[in-house]
Amino acid sequence: MERLAWHFDFHSHKSIRINHDPDVAGMAEALAAAGVDEIITFAKCHTGFAYYPSRVGNPHPLMPGDAFGDVVRACKARGIRVLAYISFGIDGEAGRRHPEWAQVGDPKAGPQITPDHFVATCPYTPYIDDFMLPMIQEIIDGYEVDGFFFDTMGAMGICHCRYCQEEFQRVCGRALPLGPADADWGRYGAFRRERAWRVVGHVGQYILERRPGLKVGFNWVGTARFPERMPAGVTCLTCDYSTTGPQSLQASFHACYGKTAELPCDVMYTIINHGWGDWAPRPLPGLEQTGVTIWAHGCKPYLGDRLHPTNRLDPMSVRAISFMGEVQRRVAAAYPDADAQQPNEVLLVNGPMAQYGGPDMRGFAADHSGLTPLEGMHRLLLDAGYPLAMAPEDFLEKHLAKARVAILSEVRAIAAGTATALRCFVEAGGRLLVTGCVPAAADGGAAIDWLGMTREPTPWQDHIYLPLWQPDAERSPVLVHGPFHRLALSTAEMVLPAIQPYDCSFGMRFGHATGPASFEPSAVPALTRRALGRGEVWYLEAPIGSDYYHKANYWQADWLRGLMERLLPSPAARVISEAGNVEAVPHLSERATWVFLINHGGEQIGLSQRTARTFASVPHFPIVVEVRIPPDRVPKSVTVGDQRVNWTQEDAVLRVELTLDGIWTVLKAVWR
Questions:
Q1: Residue 132 domain-assigned?
Q2: Cys bridge to 196: 156, 236, 322, 415, which one at CB 3.0-4.6 A?
């Protein structure tokens, strides 16, 4: 399993005393005792201060000595790898001293230069070659670091500085567009994407040419927000997700992506409560809940923390480090054998056009709404009890080789090669589920024209109801909000019809609320199926992923469980929890199947639905775990944690009933 890593935030105002009472030896001792194998420590922060006696940069004015170097030397002496943190795209001091390097988001307002604190800098000015690369060289020459972590990627955003305007004019032969209404906005998105990877590759290769083997990562680059193959200078991925919203579920989402990526993936979550400035530590149960989720998927947990300005660990940090070290030891003791692999039978498909706004890339690094239907579908599948992975288009064929179901959740557009790979997957016996829209191709047409139906261009209803899989007088049909279009079938068959809201047409409401369902279903298909080769392609017109993200209607998860039972009979493992909130992550070897069972319940949600934290014991969930028995094998023993448990068997499925009364456990079935 991946080890434990720690990130130490150190953004500091010019009036804060730095390194006045250091204890780097104590810091290194606490980290080593907990089994932390890697840390990130600051060389330069957002405010623009260097934390070593830089001749190139701007050392913090109230820092005696070498805060960065002292941490590097102390941790290296204890065998801990150290990455140098350099703010990439925010540099207050450089922006104040060189206003021409500042990013210009609004051409009418000009660069936003503050008297202190942060200034957004543009990496396409001389800032990189004249300032950042010399600082990097200074660190390589002076310190035995193991790599670099660059933050933030806001540098890739919209900029109207003189250098950006001149380059766009030179490359595209026209003025840089002012906003999304401009006809060239899509061209500008593609332009920003190309130069972003050019500068990232330039910085990364500069480092690797001077010291091969270093770890080089740029926060968020290559992860679910930017799901594509990275330039050669990038050697790892890091997703530093939001401190607000469900924490362990966000960790699961990003680890589901990270485990299929080409490069090793770190998933960063923080012990801080509400952003780096709110130094109120998260409760320890929440740290465990999130860290175990990341380990279960095979990624590295990277805990975000603050280093005290004195250059020593705060007692809260020592407590968290020690606690997570103990969690790491317990997870390692229960972890699957080295030859065990995750089956990844269900694949969510992600890609550049899905995240950058469509074929013209207009939303590159400026619009992350493409994640919403994916995050919603991820949560739906977890609540329905089905393990999953998320694969980027660039590496999709490799993962389709062992997948059984692929899902396009409101994916706006895909590459032609992706459509071809998915068709081959279906024809070879796989099942494809497309929801919410038909993906466009780069040329503007339909990338998948083999669904066996056509879709009217304008919406018919703005919410519909889905029939239940089995009639139930105690339950109503399942509501899904979002634009719903009429379908005309050719070679596909209708599986379920749409049920209209009672007496409502598009845009109508019962007061401010959604109306009840009509008594009878319409003749308009909601769910279709087409046999293709040895497989099937299914289409659900309702945008159920994004609706679940916003509304969390649990009956949608219950409905999806019924659909998945038809798409994926006899999965490697699944969990049935009437309340959802339990994730199963299976690992398979020749001799055994391990299933991590993770309790995602217990988070206390603020009234604004933003801050979410697990404070103490989690809810107890009665669950059933089902595990597929391999061919020609029979169960030898089944344990949950360190206790043997009883099981039942039906055909080739092993079933265990239990109550998940803790944050996590591992079910292990040994075969003979």
A1: yes
A2: 156
**Residues present in the chain in total:** 672
β partners of residue 529: 493, 538
Cβ neighbours of residue 100 under 8 Å, at least 6 residues apart? 125, 161, 162
- Per the structure, how many domains does the chain have? 3
Last residue of a domain, one of 542, 567, 592: 567
Do 398 and 455 lie in one domain? The reply is yes
Contact between 87 and 45 under an 8 Å Cβ cutoff? The reply is: yes
How many C-beta atoms lie closer than 10 Å to residue 118's C-beta? 17
Task: Give the model confidence (pLDDT) of 16-31 as tens digits.
Answer: 999 999 999 999 999 9
pLDDT at position 607 is: 63
Answer with the one of 567, 602, 632 that is the final residue of a domain.
Answer: 567
- CA torsion 74-75-78-79 (nearest 10°) is -140
| Crossing angle of the two packed helices 133-142 and 185-210, in degrees rounded to 10 | 20
Read off the pLDDT of each residue in 628-650 and give the average, rounded to a whole number: 97
How is residue 620 annotated by DSSP? P
354 token code pair? 């899905």
Residue pLDDT, tens place only, 215-237: 999 999 999 999 999 999 999 99
Q: Is the pTM of this model over 0.85?
A: yes
At which residue do the structure tokens 């920003």 appear?
192
Phi, psi of 235 (to 5 degrees): -115, -5
CATH number at 473 reads: 3.40.50.880
Q: What CATH number does the domain containing 292 carry?
A: 3.20.20.80
Residue 480 banded pLDDT, cuts 50, 70, 90: very high
Residue carrying the six token digits 């064929």:
397
For residue 339, being part of any structural domain is answered with: no
